[in-house]
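User: Peptidase S1 domain-containing protein. Structure?
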Amino acid sequence: MEYPSIVRLGVYDILMDHGHEVPIEGFLRHPEHSYFRAYHDIALVKLEHRVYFTSNIRPACLWYTESRNTTKFIVTGFDNNNSYGVPSTQLTKVVLEEFPGQDCAQRYKFLPRFSRGITDGQLCVGSDLEGRHACIGDPGSSLLTLTHPKTCMFHIVGITPIGPYGCGVGKTRALYTKVAHYLDWIEENVWGSKANLADTYKFNKFF
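Assistant: Predicted structure:
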């Protein structure tokens, strides 16, 4: 399997603009993640050098508490609502909302990947409107909430899962990784004691 080697920032149309390309130094997958299960689906990407902000490249904060003052979220990607069609070449967005965990539990209880049910590290997110969801090309995208409209500041509440079922088809639900649940792990490996260890970020530790 070929590893991703760059991150592209500030891209709106993938046919017209390559954006700002930054080489990847390495990856760190959560130690409890398994490709055969739908839990701890989170990883970190370390870039080779610093990223400078522009009008098209802006930071987003991490949501840091278990409580949330909104149930409406935004997901962006290049494949929203194109479950069986041609992926979008332009960055698109869809507005989704949070649902009780039991909604997802009922839908996924017979699937082997969800053998442990719904955990504290997951959010049940979707839409009751037809055809609204993240899709095949969107895994890893951020589940965002706009916290400061005047300054266009977003917080990352969750991470789009791999392969949400029924994306772009019908009334859907999917389990998103809850960022606040993994904040200690993120901080330890980004700013903490493990951040600069030689074995923390490597290409061969991602897949």
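The beta strands are 6-9, 20-29, 43-47, 61-62, 72-77, 92-99, 122-127, 142-148, 153-159, 172-178. Residues 124 and 175 are 5 Å apart (CA to CA).
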